[in-house]
Each structure stands twice: as C-alpha cells, then as structure tokens.
Amino acid sequence: xxxxxxxxxxxxxxxxxxxxxxxxxxxxxxxxxxxxxxxxxxxxxxxxxxxxxxxxxxxxxxxxxxxxxxxxxxxxxxxxxxxxxxxxxxxxxxxxxxxxxxxxxxxxxxxxxxxxxxxxxxxxxxxxxxxxxxxxxxxxxxxxxxxxxxxxxxxxxxxxxxxxxxxxxxxxxxxxxxxxxxxxxxxxxxxxxxxxxxxxxxxxxxxxxxxxxxxxxxxxxxxxxxxxxxxxxxxxxxxxxxxxxxxxxxxxxxxxxxxxxxxxxxxxxxxxxxxxxxxxxxxxxxxxxxxxxxxxxxxxxxxxxxxxxxxxxxxxxxxxxxxxxxxxxxxxxxxxxxxxxxxxxxxxxxxxxxxxxxxxxxxxxxxxxxxxxxxxxxxxxxxxxxxxxxxxxxxxxxxxxxxxxxxxxxxxxxxxxxxxxxxxxxxxxxxxxxxxxxxxxxxxxxx
Amino acid sequence: xxxxxxxxxxxxxxxxxxxxxxxxxxxxxxxxxxxxxxxxxxxxxxxxxxxxxxxxxxxxxxxxxxxxxxxxxxxxxxxxxxxxxxxxxxxxxxxxxxxxxxxxxxxxxxxxxxxxxxxxxxxxxxxxxxxxxxxxxxxxxxxxxxxxxxxxxxxxxxxxxxxxxxxxxxxxxxxxxxxxxxxxxxxxxxxxxxxxxxxxxxxxxxxxxxxxxxxxxxxxxxxxxxxxxxxxxxxxxxxxxxxxxxxxxxxxxxxxxxxxxxxxxxxxxxxxxxxxxxxxxxxxxxxxxxxxxxxxxxxxxxxxxxxxxxxxxxxxxxxxxxxxxxxxxxxxxxxxxxxxxxxxxxxxxxxxxxxxxxxxxxxxxxxxxxxxxxxxxxxxxxxxxxxxxxxxxxxxxxxxxxxxxxxxxxxx
Lengths: 447, 412
Known about the structure:
The structure holds two protein chains of two kinds. By secondary structure, chain A is an alpha+beta fold. Helix content of chain A is 41%, strand content 19%. In chain A, strand 1 and strand 2 (18-23) form a beta hairpin. The longest helix of chain A is centred in the C-terminal third of the chain and has 18 residues, at 346-363. Helix content of chain B is 46%, strand content 20%. Chain B starts with a strand and ends with a helix. In chain B, helix 1 crosses helix 7. The longest helix of chain B is centred in the C-terminal third of the chain and has 17 residues, at 306-322. Chain B is of the alpha+beta class. Chain B folds into two domains: 2-199, 2-Layer Sandwich (Cytochrome Bc1 Complex, Chain A, domain 1), CATH 3.30.830; 221-411, Cytochrome Bc1 Complex, Chain A, domain 1, CATH 3.30.830. Classes of the chains: A alpha+beta, B alpha+beta. Chains A and B meet through helix 2, strand 5, strand 6, helix 5 and helix 11 of A and helix 2, helix 4, helix 10, strand 9 and helix 12 of B.
C-alpha cells in the first residue's frame, strides 16, 4: 500500500484515539471508533458557496443533488435503492465552506454492508456522469408550459420552500448585507434564474475543479478496524492522477463601521429580527470558543440573559422568542441574535437588545456565567459523541473548515483557560453596536 | 434490560449501556381522560419548569443550565412525557430537580406563561407549513381532541385558572398510569435507590380509557387555507388508519415504507420528485396514536402544480391498492424497515424512549422483537389488502395556497 502520513488525535468521549491518514495525493481518511450496530461513511469536500460568484451561485448545491444521478457503473437511483433496502440513511448537504455526502447503515453480519457501501459511495464521489436527462433542459421561468421537469425543478422547489420560511428570509437579507465582496454574501442555494439556466458543462467543470484529492476527507465512524479497511478505502478511492488545484483565497470583508438596518415585509403577523456580526476565522479557535461562550450566556436556554431579562422577568414582554447563534466559517464566523416580537414595538425591540449588548460590553459577565458556559460547551462534546453521524459531522467540520483535527485536543484546555477578561475583550472587539447589521421582517400592513 | 415495579405501581425498566456518557430517564404519563378545558395538559407541561415551592423559574433554569441538564416535558396526543438527560455524574441533581417540579410546582407564573404561549403560537402560525398542518389535523379529526391545534388552544387558554391546573396536576401525580425507563452507564444497584427516593411519592393507577372515541370520516373532507404570498402550496391528504394496537401495524409500517417514508427510494419520492420534478419535499407519514392511526401524504409544491400533485397521490395510492408489489420491493421494504430500527436505539435517550413507549402502550418492553418478526412475516398480499382496507375509506384533504389556485381546485 502507498505511503501515508498517520496522526492520532485524542477525541473527547471516544474510547480510542481518532486515526487520520493522509495519502500522497492529498486525500485524507479518518477513522473514529464507536461501538454499536451503525456505521457512518462520509466524504467532505472543501467547496460550497465560498467558491461561487454572481454567475454560478447555487452550483455547489445543484451539483450535490446531481451527484446522486448515477455513474457508468450504477445508474441513477441504484445507489439509494441498494443502500436504503438495507436500512441506510443516505443524504448530503451543502454549506458555505463544504459539501458532504453520507451513508449511515446498520453494520449487518460480516463486512458486506461496509464493502458495498464503500464501493457505491466512492463510485458516486469519483465517477458521477450527471446526465442531461436528469438535470433537465434549461428553461424560461416565465414559460407556463414546461411539462418535463427534472432535478433543476426540484432545486427550484427547494428555493421556493425557503422563501416561505420567515427566519430564512430575515437571515438571507442579513447575510447579504453583512458582506461587501466576500462570496459568503450569497445564499448557498442560489436563485431560480441561475438554476433554471445552468448548463451541464458548467456543473462538470465545477466538479473537476473542486472535487480533487486534497479537497476530500473520507470519514468512517463506527465499530471498524482501520488496519483491515484502510486498504479497501485506498483501492476504492482511486483518483487516477486527478490533479489538485490551489485553494481560492478571498479578501476578508471588514465589519460595517456604523450600524446598518435593513427591512423587508411579508404576509406575516409577527416581527422577526436578526442582529449579525462578522467574527474571526475558524482557525482562531480561542476567539471562536469565546464567542460561542458569549452566545450561551447571552441567548442559549431559559437561564440566558436575553431570555430572562427580555421575556421571563418582563410583564407583557414584546418578545415571543429571543436567542443567539454562532456559525463558524473558514474566513470568519457570524454571531447572531435572533428575535420574534410584536411588530408594533419594532424600535423598542431593537433598543432592548442593544441595552443587553451594552451591558455585556461594559460590565462583562459573572464567574457563575463563565462556569456555566464552560460546562455546557464541554457537555456538547459528550452530546456529539453519541451517534456515529454526529461524530463524523464534528470531525468533518474540523477537517474541512479548520484544516485539522488536532485543535480538538486543545479545545478542552482552551475552554478551561478562558477568563472573565477574555470574554469582555472579545465581546468589545467583535460585538460593538456600530458593527451590527440588523435585518428586520415585518407584516406587509406596516409598509 | 431489567424490569420491576416500584411499590407505588410505577413500572420501571433499566438498561445498562456504557457506550455513551449520558444517562437518560424517561417517564410516560398516560392521559386517559379528555381535557375539561382545551389546552390544559399543554399548559401544565409548560408550567412544570416555571417555579416550585422553593425555586423560582429562574433558579430552575440556572440549575439545569449550570449542570448542562436537559429536562423537558412534552405533551403529546396520548401522554405527557418527562425527559431527563445528563452526564452520569449529574444524575443526582437531575433527579432532584425532576422530583421537585413533579411534586411542588406552584403555577404562580400562569398568566405570564399564557401570554408567552400566545406570542409563540402567533409566531409559529407565520409558517405556512405549520398553519396548513394545524388545519389538516382539524379536518382529519374534526371534533376530537386529536384535532386540537394552536388555534383551539389560543381560544381556550384564557379560561384556564390555577384551580383547574391543580386538579389535573393531582391527576398527573396521583392517578394517571406512569412508567419509567432508564438507560445509563450506571449500575441498576446505583439507580434503583435513586428512583425510589425521587419517584415513590407519586401514584400510578391503571384505569379504563375514558377518552372520547375517534369518529370515522364518513365522506371526504376538504379544507383550504388562503395565503396570498405563498410560494408553495402545502398539501396534506390523510386517512384514518388503525391504532398501534392493531395486528395490521407491521403491515402498515411496510406500506408506509414503500409509499413514502423510505428516504430517496420510496414510490412518492421517485414518481413525484425524481420523475416529475414537482417538489423538494414529498413523503408519507404514519402516526400510530392509541385511539386511531393517522396516515397522510404530504407535498410542498408550486401552487400551479396542485392538481398534478393530487393526481400523483391518487395514482400512487390506487396503484398500491390494486397492484401486487414485486418480491424484490417487498424484500427491500422489509430490510429498510427493520434496518432503520437500529437508529431508534442508537443513543441512551432513544433507547429509553422506545422501551418506555412500548411499556406505556402496555405492549411490553420486548415488543420490538415481536414487531420485527411480524414485519418479516408480511406477504405481498398483506400489503395490497392493507392498502385496500384503509385507503378505500374517505379521506381528509387540506391545501394552503393563494386564493386563485384554491378556487381552481374547488371548481374542478
């Protein structure tokens, strides 16, 4: 077997260290041992809307759909039918930094399920044919007489579905206004105009450019012996001298310098709002961890500041929902505060959230809050080590977005090292009021 | 797996599993009386975390979050479920707070919680899917408590007072049948004294089910929800199927697998999504309640596709009622349905949930084995007969879309 670099990583709450093998071509293979009857096989590709532009926005996600449309060896539908007939869950997902494909399947007796899954998964990853008849003809969105509808129509329905979701609408408007030039500003799914027109050739060229060995990490989570199955994986993932390409580097956008508010209207009865902030790159583990902790203290759970101060301790609160979220991305994360509120109190809703932010920036947090956030973050690792799919997803994220898994070993130490001053400093660096973009969705009657 | 009964009549199941670091404790409380005021069980389930004789809601929230303890109370159609999930090392704190909320809740925050529920429901109803789904249940189970959705609760919730709550609280504590299931890395020797300490104060009495029976649908029911700016129509079509206790249950699981619940290879997915490009989401769902089953098909599609989608449903339903499935499709469905069951026990929480659910139903915690055997024993004839038996009954249809598309459907 070819020479490979091997690294072991002690991963919290797993019985054995995670093993990572890097092949000469750059393809990485990861084994995470988990006792049980289920296996997860996934491949994570370092591409998503980060590698798109105004002309091809949505192509990463469209390709993800089309990867299921067969190879020369297995026609469209065969992959799903064979695996699902053995109880597997098969799917894929596309986000800003990555696209991943996974199969979670009962181990069964012997190694037949593993071997067959590996063969089908590797074939799908390396040899998609993306036939024209499965993509469907490019079409005019205004033509009411389209009768033959194929995968591009499925994706357009997915876009329609998202348009009917108020939280997605308010998030997309926020996201588009947080960035100036970085590709993160685009919605991952793209839009109907592009999807109705994109050509097979464009999709294939995109596939060739980004589905390269060094861009792909294959993860096996479950009760497996790496020594036995590593040669099988190497054999099935035969890249046949496929060349690697350089990673695209983008200029990182600066946060807005004065607060920016954008408003949209829809046929709804309540108000939706999101505060959004640009945050540090994923590889800055310490600041990302601190921002996650701030999120917990400010807006996660019933004990959080926003919930207690804006809902629980207020008579006739104007808020129905208020919470925080943190997304970590390669070129910079996003911190969000999201709320649903009585629309007639829009200005008050914004002011009340700002007051909570000001308090955090000026006074910091308490020791008790710090300890709570530390405990919750550590336990989230326990939570994510319970299923083979959660283990694979966490590893996939680190391998793809942070470029390594070793940072997981440091993670618990970093959590323990964070001080009250760290929290205050990071909050002031990233979450000042003038750096916020605020997106609001209101009932049409308020136009 | 170990099963025993506490002296107060609560059946307990304990299973040891060292494979994950968290302990799961589930308690099912059987609701065998209809609500005297609509929404009272839901309101009660919300108020359990809102203050006891010794702790305010904020203190409860702090204890839970500071120990990363996940404690929740869910009201479903047939039961209230208490769920406790925490690191093994925090089990004492978790059970202490669970005991406190079950025994000592005060409902002092009633007014505030009602206000919050109203706001949350209003926010929920801004989702087209939730709005349509609520209307679908209303149409499907007209006049029965299974039909109760956000709208009905909003209409009734102001009439619920503290006395009403204490009455049902006492039923939950001292009357309704309960069962507990625990899956944990801890030994049963450690767990048993803890369960006795924290749950012996309750009582569990087996009584006849006094709930109203579900009336069959006598003729097709249709309801429309207008939403002018909807980008997609939301379509639900459902049939009354038998409850989980029926011997047809394993056959219905297979029928559902073949028709629309098996991911990317079901008939509805292949015909309506893959071949016709009508939708991103299309599926069938079977909800086996204890009084009646709810089998429905669902699609979200561009409003101009409503008729094509309904025709597609009709074609697939007729096909499975009239054409014998192939040996291969039956075999695949069995392997899918049985294989998928591995997922239902992957974590301590899932396993405690499943074994507790079967115990709640009175089917025994080992029902899973019997169910798998019966799935494997089903024949092609069983599938066609089951489909014909239930799909030939009248159904309930609910569509949400802009008015002009609904008019077209109504006139056709």
